[in-house]
Known about the structure:
Layout: H1 14-20, E1 32-40, H2 50-68, H3 71-77, E2 78-82, E3 86-93, H4 95-102, E4 109-112, H5 123-126, H6 140-143, E5 151-156, E6 196-201, H7 204-210, H8 226-235, E7 239-244, E8 247-252, E9 260-265, E10 267-271, E11 274-276, H9 278-291, E12 295-298, H10 311-321, E13 325-329, E14 348-353, E15 357-358, E16 360-365, E17 370-374, E18 386-390, H11 401-404, H12 414-417, E19 421-425, H13 431-440, E20 445-449, E21 466-470, H14 472-484, E22 489-492, E23 498-499, E24 527-530, E25 534-537, E26 556-559, H15 562-579, H16 585-594, H17 616-619, H18 626-629, E27 634-635, H19 640-650, H20 654-661, E28 682-687, E29 690-699, E30 705-711, E31 716-721, E32 724-726, E33 733-742, E34 752-760, E35 765-774
Parallel strand pairs: 5-9, 5-12, 6-9, 12-13, 13-14, 14-24, 18-19, 19-20, 20-21, 28-35
Antiparallel strand pairs: 1-3, 1-4, 2-3, 7-8, 10-11, 15-23, 16-17, 16-22, 18-22, 25-26, 27-29, 29-33, 30-32, 30-34, 31-33, 34-35
Helix pairs in contact: 2-3, 8-15, 9-10
Amino acid sequence: MRIPNLILSYSLPPLLLLLASGLHWPCCAAKQSYVVYMGAHSHDPAKLSPLDFNRVTHSHYEFLGSFLGSSDAAKDSIFYSYTKHINGFAATLEEEVAAEIAKHPKVLSVFENRGRKLHTTRSWDFMGLEQNGKTPSNSIWKKARYGEGVIIGNLDTGVWPESKSFNDKGFGPIPSKWRGICHNGSDPTFHCNRKLIGARYFNKGYASVVGKLNSSLESPRDTEGHGSHTLSTAGGNMVPGVSVFGQGCGTAKGGSPKARVAAYKVCWPPVAGNECFDADIMAAFDVAIHDGVDVLSVSLGGSAAAFFNDSVAIGSFHAAKHGIVVVCSAGNSGPAEGSAENLAPWYITVGASTMDREFPSYVVLGNNLSLKGESLSAAKLAHKFYPIIKATDAKLPSARVEDAVLCQNGTLDPKKVKGKILLCLRGVNARVDKGEQALLAGAVGMVLANDKINGNEILADPHVLAASQVNFTDGVSVFDYINSTKFPVAYITHPKTLIHTKPAPFMAAFSSKGPNIIVPEILKPDITAPGVSVIAAYTEDEGPTNQMFDKRRIPYNSVSGTSMSCPHISGVVGLLKTMYPSWSPAAIKSAIMTTATTLDNEAEQLLNATNGKATPFGYGAGHVEPNRAMDPGLVYDTTINDYLNFLCALGYNETQISTFSEGGDYKCARNFSLLNLNYPSITVPNLSGSVTLTRTLKIVGAPATYNVRVQNPSGISIFVKPNILKFKKVGEEKTFEVTLKVKQGKATNNKYAFGKMIWSDGKHHVKSPIVVRAL
């Protein structure tokens, strides 16, 4: 699921008019990045204030400006200013300018910024599949031949077939197992090829709600962008020279870039808040299974429902029966507890977290306070201070304060806003819609301040006016500054691209969370992956904000949501399917979950957007580590019969289950407990005294002896029997018992506690989160 983005404008600046006319933003110009090293600072950074550091930065602007002609040009060029121990800066420069700077007596050296080449879907570098643009020998990409031979299907808004992400150059014949078609409907320009091997559309369920459809809705073409974005993230080609308005310049790529892909369009223009209807989803699942896909990526969902009333749960169960791995998004209703969607155990449910890339755009206040926000705005402000005003101070007399602070439509007085930077609060209406309202009211820029619930989660949006989104704490600082002076002023710097940021990842505030409200004994989501500011292919039928007023057209766009994290896992699944075609969907799921990490790039526990410690209700088993997933050692290989017994334990009768399973008369296992589903995580939602449950592990690596260790949840004792498992041959299975007991006198006040169970042979570490609530 994607976080909705809206943006303006009716009156486009000249640069945007060029984009609207069909010209694309120049990416990777002739300039290169260099480090200008000027030695060490003479000051003690511990004794300096932020204002002192700003002065150092200003001196760098002035120095470079003497070569470029102005400090403004220097500000656009410099993307790092080293202000503490090292004296110098990093900047984008022409080669001749760099050579001239190197001759200056204050400069010790100027050298090319090597090894920092950006890759647009930075997430794959962040997850270890590549390093500085190269694929290391231990990467799953090399081991899995980049997903060669796998077919990834996508249930979404269709596909933009002209995208370079779906070009078939270098691809051989279509796999013989493929039985799908390319149904272009009423669009004679739509085409498939040896990369995009199939496309279908399903709109009858939609038509039953909206009535007769026009011809534009009789095609698998993606006119919204969502489907192209998700499909290219899962299995798009490697495409160099990609950017979003000049930012994030690098190579776009999918998780399985050599996979074949197929689009199943089931989502259409929204009606009554819905855009993907169950009837269409079910039809797509049915056909996709027949077509021969290996993986289905499903970035859609709705309110949780009983499994037999859930088209995704039903369709994905049938897919799993045929060996197809289904991956679903968890939803964008976080950080509320119990908000996760797609809750069945037979597919992989994915939460969203950040990666180590930002698009910093600084808000500099008149008191010299510089606050780092983010943006992908193409518009630039002149390097000078502008008056800054709170939206509540610019409200129309007829508007409510609570609406005006959000910069909602019809709340702003142009007489008060014109020529100023407007401060808006995040919430209710879309982030870029606030920018539209600001621009229509005459603002030259916008500062978008997070509300408390979104904390540090910043999403880089392609605003039409100069804008920067800041976190909650910095937003408070802007409010305080405006209130502290009679003539508040500010300016907003043009965004840059910054990588290797820390801490990363942390959980996105929007990412939906557990506990599972349908079956509390199953932890959801299962895993987390990058879902914030992800750059991938897009439609060129609409602008990057999908609004009528946005006349810009770009082939790649930055979007956030669990819709974006879902296809990251789909891409990893594609690699594992290439390596292990005989593995069951459950084995692949287990490999991904049990090798995940719960640490960030500072080796600290994953955080949430408000800097608190995240829990398995947010990240599931942790953040995906693809290179570890290809060698998990052991797997929890849940069978279809296990799922059927699970349904029996939920209260479905044998007649229902027999019909559901297509396996004749099904007899439920006696006394099967929901706690005993052979799942890679353990969740006990109502522990009273003690309980014993079972799990079974299968060895998929070399025969070995595994020992167990447990991190006990607070107030809970856990005992594993046996605590040593000896595997003598590949494929051998061993069953063990886990007993959880409430410690005497250690009441948990009905709150969940979290722990971990780890089986290890010294090389492999098979990890399972443990979630317990004692009554």
